[in-house]
């Protein structure tokens, strides 16, 4: 399994970037990006940091040490909010938080949703 390469491809596709464009952003050849995505090459630490910063994700997420939050047990409103949050860089800071902090944040979000402070734009 090539988690780094899979996540890099997913992130660049979400931004509508080709491997060549992605390489240009980081001063790398298209073949280097393709090598990362296929698992034939591994990036150095500075490259991992630069890619994570550019795409607004944590290095842990990019390297496969953190997975995305499962939405299976969420209410429809909570799942919708989660999808909106995934578009924000701060969401990935949440993924890196310790379990106590995550619980605290989730409880705060539930209060916002239940209290009617969260309103969808329609």
TrEMBL record:
Give the InterPro entries listed for this entry: Cro/C1-type_HTH, Lambda_DNA-bd_dom_sf
Under what name is this protein listed? Helix-turn-helix transcriptional regulator
PROSITE patterns, per the entry = HTH_CROC1 (PS50943)
Domain of life from the UniProt record: Bacteria
Signal peptide as annotated in the record: none
**Which keywords does UniProt give here?**
DNA-binding
Q: Which SUPFAM superfamilies match?
A: lambda repressor-like DNA-binding domains (SSF47413)
Q: Does the keyword DNA-binding apply?
A: yes
Q: Which organism is it from?
A: Alicyclobacillus acidoterrestris (strain ATCC 49025 / DSM 3922 / CIP 106132 / NCIMB 13137 / GD3B)
